[in-house]
Amino acid sequence: MNRKLKMGMVGGGQDAFIGAIHRLAANMDGLIEITCGALSINPVTAVASGKALFLAESRTYLTYEEMFKAEAALPVNERMDFVTIVTPNFAHFAPAMMALDYGFNVVIEKPITFSLEEAKLLKQKVEETGLILCLTHTYSGYPMVKQAKAMVREGKLGKIRKVWVEYPQGWLSKLSEREGNAQAAWRTDPTKAGKSSVMGDIGTHAAHLAEYITGAKITDVCAELNTLVEGRVMDDDGAVMLKFDNDAKGVLMASQVAAGEENALRIRVYGEKGGIEWLQHDPNTLIVRWLDEPAQILRAGSNYSHLSSFATHNCRTPGGHPEGYLEAFANIYRNFALTLSCKLDGTEPTAEMLDFPSVEDGLRGMAFIDNVVTSSQSDKKWTPYIM
Amino acid sequence: MNRKLKMGMVGGGQDAFIGAIHRLAANMDGLIEITCGALSINPVTAVASGKALFLAESRTYLTYEEMFKAEAALPVNERMDFVTIVTPNFAHFAPAMMALDYGFNVVIEKPITFSLEEAKLLKQKVEETGLILCLTHTYSGYPMVKQAKAMVREGKLGKIRKVWVEYPQGWLSKLSEREGNAQAAWRTDPTKAGKSSVMGDIGTHAAHLAEYITGAKITDVCAELNTLVEGRVMDDDGAVMLKFDNDAKGVLMASQVAAGEENALRIRVYGEKGGIEWLQHDPNTLIVRWLDEPAQILRAGSNYSHLSSFATHNCRTPGGHPEGYLEAFANIYRNFALTLSCKLDGTEPTAEMLDFPSVEDGLRGMAFIDNVVTSSQSDKKWTPYIM
Amino acid sequence: MNRKLKMGMVGGGQDAFIGAIHRLAANMDGLIEITCGALSINPVTAVASGKALFLAESRTYLTYEEMFKAEAALPVNERMDFVTIVTPNFAHFAPAMMALDYGFNVVIEKPITFSLEEAKLLKQKVEETGLILCLTHTYSGYPMVKQAKAMVREGKLGKIRKVWVEYPQGWLSKLSEREGNAQAAWRTDPTKAGKSSVMGDIGTHAAHLAEYITGAKITDVCAELNTLVEGRVMDDDGAVMLKFDNDAKGVLMASQVAAGEENALRIRVYGEKGGIEWLQHDPNTLIVRWLDEPAQILRAGSNYSHLSSFATHNCRTPGGHPEGYLEAFANIYRNFALTLSCKLDGTEPTAEMLDFPSVEDGLRGMAFIDNVVTSSQSDKKWTPYIM
Amino acid sequence: MNRKLKMGMVGGGQDAFIGAIHRLAANMDGLIEITCGALSINPVTAVASGKALFLAESRTYLTYEEMFKAEAALPVNERMDFVTIVTPNFAHFAPAMMALDYGFNVVIEKPITFSLEEAKLLKQKVEETGLILCLTHTYSGYPMVKQAKAMVREGKLGKIRKVWVEYPQGWLSKLSEREGNAQAAWRTDPTKAGKSSVMGDIGTHAAHLAEYITGAKITDVCAELNTLVEGRVMDDDGAVMLKFDNDAKGVLMASQVAAGEENALRIRVYGEKGGIEWLQHDPNTLIVRWLDEPAQILRAGSNYSHLSSFATHNCRTPGGHPEGYLEAFANIYRNFALTLSCKLDGTEPTAEMLDFPSVEDGLRGMAFIDNVVTSSQSDKKWTPYIM
Fold first, then answer.
1. Scanning every residue of chain C, which has its alpha carbon at the shortest distance from the alpha carbon of B35?
2. Which of A301, B335, B359, D251 lies 20 to 30 A from A135 at CA?
3. D-chain residues within 8 Å CB-CB of B288?
4. A GO molecular-function term, please (chains A, B, C, D) (predicted)?
């Protein structure tokens, strides 16, 4: 890289959760500087937020339309290189389409859009423009998730037979959307969150992780979505039985009402020769079990040869210096930035750099939500996965 | 108790797995003496096994018919008080029925019979005779499982919303039934194991645990059974979505091909106020999570007032002296023995003594297998649970 | 074995802690029957305890002197084969000496005697009589402790450099000896417990474990004993730096006032090539760390070839069926019983059978207490270990 | 804060370990921009490193003397606000003194200097200049370490009785300093590392953690330092028994040859009412054990009221989004930056902002090394702690 990349931001004003996370992740490796933003639809918040981020007043915009227009008018080396979109789900599509139209690369929070239809249009736009879109499916940024993927790809576990992925959270165990919790309010509002709350918010992470690690695609689902808190207008819990295109079977469980649980995403993948287990709460560890050998504890940052280049590329510290959620998030930004810089510099990114979620992953995520909702409403056991 | 109880055994000769477990469990507390046995259909094995157990030659029988007849002819204080049946599934029913007819109480390994029909007949026989039948659903013998049940019953978790129960094993990951593994051979043979291998062997344990802890009954299932090892003639993996009669939802996952897994039965139950997690590999610990409080680590044998009398009654040692599978098994024998002794002595057993699995639990286990198989073969999503 | 062995018991009446543990352990494997006892110095308790154990009235004795005399007068095949001594520390020596004089083999709770001098006399008596004395240093009965010992012996870890062993308990955090806790009362009374409470009760376990696993002997100690609860008349906490005869160094930490801890004995041993870690609270797991390989999780009962015959000989169940403290205890009884039976039968015990703690281990334990107390009272850093 | 703070760097060129860590930590929160550096004594490396960090050529210096002079000549709002010193131990003192003389605030890697004498002079200089010096004792930056400190301070555990702190690493298990490992080479070279390798590198962290959490000061040490790898010229292992000024006792264990261990710093502190345990490998968890209550699992980022403001101030994400080593490191930078900004802005920093290690902590660290070395060379058991 010859210079830091310049990032603009849509959404993410003060008190927004995920916008702050994106900034921490973008800052960490010193490859990106946050240059401009349309940080809130509330002008007061937008200005205050820009000031808190030490943005130039001239580049603290009140709307994204204004930002794209103004930035596009700046000289190439001054204008933003890409824009990060961290608005609620229903407000992803419009700024993303417009950014691409203006020639800006895009980083976007998941789920990629409000609807599958939007996702398809967005994918088409990305392909037309040849720009880069990066989707922040954070959990695939963890080095030991990448290690798991590498081990499956290299056949270490043999043919994959079974996937169990679960995502318990407890934060919606009460009717918090009626008690002034803004995050709970929009996430349980079908006009803002999309067709499913639990699957849009966390189920897609689990599905992405399953497909990412196994390299297989879901072909059929049998889903049940539940609203377990009385008075809630959207689902808050669900289970999905899965079939994959490599004949593996799976179960996906996601709940926002698993009282007392934090963010305990866990995946287990079993093949003919062994299995892996990864738990987001202990992310630097990958348990590898074997049929006829003792289980092994693979650790991020270790110096033994068992770690894939995809794992080591995504570590910053030696074993025993825990890297966490923000580093996983930063890995996505870093790989995106390295890839984008290669493009700007006319060089070739490595396979490790290119390993970040794309518009295709976003599209599959939206299809997952759609198919799960369809299945949940059906009396038939299996619903073929339609894209 | 005024004297040790005398136990006879059908099956459980040398090299049989579960028979040895039953003896360890029966011995431990010094309340039971193994007095006689029809330990094998192979006469040579039967005699050798009796000798190894220091049984009197006169009470080492070659068939259970012979044993029941001979023992029944002995004076009351000499004959066996009860018989334990540890033959393979298909050979439970006949000796159990005959034992009851001869007036012997029965301990029986799960699944209780080969078919649901047999289970119904057996239940009827138990009721007719007024004898005691104890089913060794081992995992409900653990003190922290009983603690979980007590906490649910006392409303500590609020209304129960969700149950996740899983039972991964890996021991059938290869086609071991073709490689001389006798245990694998009968367990994957539909003429010996019953309608389902995975559900008969381990799924019933998981289902029993879910109903035991929650006190709720399964009302509907949506099941998928898989044969994931090529060449196998029975299922070896499965998942079941569950509905309970208290409106809770559940997921049950069981696999014998989760390569590298041992016997990792785990259950999580979530209510309005909190949730519990119990893992058989760490059985003296019950994690209790709360909505607005730090999670707690409840430990068997602790002296704080948080433990139910049902937990403390089933511990032998103070906290930090791990009790395990054999002690859980022994708890079932001990409670059965205490209850039987009360009956013999004309006294009243406590609620804690009476807390061991019964013929009713056995019947529900068989119904579970049947309903899961029915659901698995159906195109409909939900199958109502038929007894 | 041709018959069950007959066991007598000195101490261990109702409400005594460790006597009940001995019986559970002796019962489990069906190799031993409890035949007689002098269970309490209180005659009422002695009789009631004998009845609760279903002992014959004629073999429920009021004193051990009476028991030894009466049993010795019985025919060989009727009299007890060995006696277990489970009185408080100060009352070990006299019955042990007398039992040996009467020709009875002995099982004895640790610490073996009240003083080092007694231990020496007892060792001399054992050697003179040629009888077997078994000391119940429970923790060396765990299969994964034996696995650790085997790995060290086989050089898997290379030359041993460092040992860390710790034994935190919290049960004496209050002045319970003044609040009616009988166990606390005698254990903190120097006329009953010996020179050190913390080292006599738990420090010896830790020291034995360190020497047992490494096969090395302590040569020098630098100790500090503390009384951390005001008003207590004995120590309740201590630390000891260690030198071993193989040039390894060590640290031993023991505390009875580590508030909230249960019985968390843990040992770590590091060599040139790797290290092991074993924790009594999770006893079926042995973590093995390697310099240039991922750490391994060795599990009791596994069927891979990594487990030593000394580990597998001491397991009753397959991996994933947790065996605990009582099974470890029972392993000591079982190995003692097998060895004694071989002697009675005129056959040769295997090395695995012979692997139980002996009078020599008891003597080293007493020397450990003595040397630690000497060191603690000294201004000099290092105290050479005197036997 | 009105603007980002400008940071210069001495040392930390390409391939240096700790310099990169400092930059990741300084970047993360967007409060600091790396503006200039004298990154290596090798001019080629210095220039290349500056380029890789996107530093202006004019502010990529070849020596720190040059940097301080040039930066001091810049207008106040352009010059660096502080300098971070990340050279090996022996090269901390000179640039730190000079920076202070030039009026620059200082962030410095531990141990603060090469010798205690230097540390005293540096402390004097800091006091004379009134500038801020921040020492990066990383582990005190973890939120759950701060929670532990708060709980002790608030008396939650009662009077503190016992501290166990351990720091096992295995990376020096081979004679790596002879095999081209530059890090190993200087850390085991007494002309570069100071009087003790193991205590300078990791023992000081452990000692700082013990004093930080308990709020007590070490008054006496009884130490043993070992060289366990043949051929090494410095110690690589040690143990220290501790006395504190609040009458608590302690044990500190540190090893660089605990083969297979990563960076497993762990501390346990026990008081009259309970104890805490914190392990750096699982840093978002604080286990709190109680005398008469179940143990609790306190988790960083949780929303219950049990967390101190000092813990919550140092979290960026909700519970279940693991923050790690880099975030702990960043907490130190962030608190330093907030404090420095307050000073620049003329406002008052909060107690939470002021909570970062100071020159006093650095001085105590150097004294710890000195006293431990003195004790290790002494025949006397206890060495009074001399500052």
1. C30
2. A301
3. 294
4. nucleotide binding
Q: Give a three-class secondary structure readout of D207-261.
A: HHHHHHHHCCCEEEEEEEEECCCCCCCCCCEEEEEEEECCCCEEEEEEECCCCCC
Q: Do D323 and A324 touch (CB under 8 A)?
A: yes
What residues in B contact C54, CB-CB < 8 Å?
1, 3-4, 30
Q: Which domain range does residue A31 map to?
A: 5-131
- Chain-centre distance of CA A250, in angstroms? 21
CA angle B296, B297, B303 (to 5 degrees): 110
Q: Which of A226, A258, A270 sits opposite B259 (nearest CB)?
A: A270
Are A50 and A119 found together in one domain?
yes
Where residue D203 sits, what CATH number does that domain have?
3.30.360.10
Cβ pairs bridging B and C (under 8 Å): 112
For the question of whether the overall pTM of this predicted structure is more than 0.90, the answer is yes
Q: Contact D316/A20, CB-based, under 8 Å?
A: yes
Asked whether residue B272 falls in the same domain as residue B160, the answer is: yes
Given the DSSP bridges, would you call strands C133-135 and C383-384 parallel, antiparallel or unpaired?
Answer: unpaired
Task: Please check whether residues C303 and C166 belong to one and the same domain.
Answer: yes
* Angle in degrees, CA A70, A71, A76, rounded to 5: 135
Asked if D181 reaches chain C (Cβ–Cβ under 8 Å), the answer is: no
Q: Number of helices (H) and strands (E), helices first, in chain A?
A: 13, 14
Q: Which of A131, A155, A190 finishes a domain?
A: A131
Q: Are residues B92 and B168 in the same domain?
A: no
CA distances from A236 to A192, A196, D63 (A): 15, 8, 60
Nearest CA to A325 out of D83, D173, D326 is that of: D326
Neighbours of B229 (CB within 10 A): 20
Say how far apart CA A370 and CA A386 lie, in whole Å: 8
| Residue where one domain finishes, among candidates D78, D105, D131 | D131
Count of Cβ atoms closer than 10 Å to residue B353 Cβ: 18
Report yes or no on B337 lying in a domain: no
- Shared domain check, C150 and C126: no
Structure token pair of residue D181: 């490992």
Give domain status of residue D269, yes or no: yes
For C279-344, give the DSSP string: ETTSTTEEEEEESSS-EEEEETT--STTS-HHHHTT--S-TTS---HHHHHHHHHHHHHHHHHHHH
Interface test with A, best of B161, B176, B220, B257 (most A CBs within 10 A): B161
- Same-domain pairing of A203 and A66: no
Tally the domains of chain B.
Answer: 2
C162 CB burial (10 A radius; 0-12, 13-18, 19+): buried
CB within 8 Å: A224 and B241: yes
B287 shares a domain with B193: yes
Residue C204 falls inside a structural domain: yes
Do the Cβ atoms of B269 and B144 come closer than 8 Å? Answer: no
**A301 → chain C, closest CA residue:** C294
Q: By the CB < 8 Å criterion, does B206 face chain A?
A: no
| C151 CB within 8 Å of a chain A CB | no
CA distance D53 to D34: 8
Q: Are the Cβ atoms of C263 and B316 closer than 8 angstroms? A: no
pLDDT by residue, tens only, chain D of 387 residues: 889 999 999 999 997 889 999 999 999 999 999 999 999 999 999 999 999 999 999 999 999 999 999 999 999 999 999 999 999 999 999 999 999 999 999 999 999 999 999 999 999 999 999 999 999 999 999 999 999 999 999 999 999 999 999 999 999 999 999 998 988 999 999 999 899 999 999 999 999 999 999 999 999 999 999 999 999 999 999 999 999 999 999 999 999 999 999 999 999 999 999 999 999 999 999 999 999 999 999 999 998 999 999 999 999 999 999 999 999 999 999 999 999 999 999 999 999 999 999 999 999 999 999 999 999 999 999 999 998
Residue B137: which of B335, B350, B385 has the closest Cα? B335
